[in-house]
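Fold description:
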Amino acid sequence: MFIKGSCVVPACALLFAQTAWANGMDCEKAQSVVEHAVCADKPLYGLDAEMGSTYRKLMKAAPQAQAELKSGQRQWLKTRDGCADDIACLHQQYQDRLQTLHAQWIEAVAYKPDDIDREVMEDLRQRILKMIDDNPEFALERALGTLTSKRNESSFSGDPSKDNAYDQTTFPKTRPEGVSPDEWKALNASGLDSDAEQGQATYTLIDLDGDGQRDLFVSTYSGGTGLVNSYETLHRNGARFTRRKAPYDPEAINGRYSLSTSDRGANQSVGWIESHGRMYVTYFNGSYGTDRLYLLNPLKINSQIPTVTVRYEYRLTVPATQYAEDNNNSSYTLEPGLQAALTEALTQSNAGNPQQLKQGTDPLCPIPASGQGDDDYYSYGAGYYAIESVTDMPVTIGNECFIARLNNWFGSYSEKDGLPALLTLRKPGVEGQERSYSVNGRRRATQVDATIGKAEEGIGLF
């Protein structure tokens, strides 16, 4: 409510808060308890400034939604003010609101797949289906092999760090082979030292958008306990290579988006293909029974992503030759009865048909009359993040019932060995009696789907 030349106090306070928020808090004019609290806390003041930047970018990116954005902000200001001078509460309110605005910004600026992208996705699906007839094990890999890029590319690595204590590289001091003087000048003007500071960086120059200038693809490997590869693309924009900036992303390195793969158990990889005159960054994410390939626009923020999914069935076998768990790589031969019992358990569990697996609710082994340790009989127990737990099952050896779990390495597969898996057994109610046996699997592609949608949780936006 406004009066000519002045305003009613609540409305005036709201107007001041909106104006200060949009431009960054002017602490010399702080009046309310909340405003003084924000100005007195440096991290909180930083969040307030980030809020202003994020809001301005979002308003610019989504002009058709400005009225809704303003209404949502007014409601948030009321909620925030309820924190008064509670710093923890204010931090949480700012972080939650920034995450919401960040998600809205993604939806506003993200690349929208067009008809050509759909043709590329469907073409890849059809190529895989044709390859299945000749090679049902590697149809996806063979189809991708027909779409390799023919564009000129050059790769070079960062220079080793002088300090051996750090697992990182530095941006090269001299122009690498295959890099033109003009490209070298642009590279040095683009602030690329931050990539090398994160680990061992590799740089690839390749024209990702067909404009005649080579763009930059950066891969950074961070060792230690993480074993993570991070990837990003930079667009050649005249005299420099430019990053795609996000208004707010606490998980991103240096405020930018990066796509990551893990070497600790996950079956993931990044590459690129060329189809219908376009380049795509491919993100492969494998698991037991399912491979997903995401086709990403290499120089845009991706939210709705063309995705090809290949599903498999496995013929699982328990090899007679097993290897002892003593780090000496010594082998032994399974007794025929034990091999038959393990094979029967795998067959009965339907483990070879991942899409039809159903975990039951009954105990896997009979619970003794004493009733002690009932929970111990329903599953194998806690899993481990570096391996993928497929299913639990009972295994009867002689007159004894064991609980077993089939584990694998997220669908990792090779032409020589097929699927390497492990069947681990334990005796319920008895500690320390565990055994493990190798299981091999040969796969066959059974279904190929093509869809456009959001990436699975855990896969970053590229």
Notes: The chain has ten helices and 20 strands. The first helix runs from residue 9 to 23.
